[in-house]
Amino acid sequence: MMWYNERKQKNKHTQNPKFHLCCGSGKVQLPLLDQPPELLQNLLLGQTKASKNYQSNARTYNAMFSFTSPGMKMDTTTNKGKGPPTLRMQGQTCHRIGSMLPLRGQRPKFAQLYIYDTENEISNRIGCFR
Amino acid sequence: MRYQTGLVVSGKYIYMDASFYKSMQSFSFFPLIINYLFSGLSDNKDIDQQIVKELKTMLDHNNVHAKAFRMARDMFVDGPVQDVKLKLISERKTDGRVYNKPTVSEVAALIVGDIDSASHRDIILQGQTGNLQRIDEFHASYPGYQYPLIFPYGEDGYRPGILLRFKDDTVVNSKNRLTIKWWLSFRLQSRKYEAITLLCSRKLLQQFCVDGYAMMESERLNWLRKNQSKLRVGKYRQLSEGNGGNNQGQERMQGKRVILPSTFVGSKRYMDQLYFDGMAISSVVGFPDIFITFTCNPNWPEITRELGKHNLKPQDRPDIISRVFKMKFDELMKDLTKKHTLGKVLACKIIFLSSLSYYY
Question: Is the distance from CB of B32 to CB of B8 less than 8 angstroms?
Answer without folding.
Answer: yes
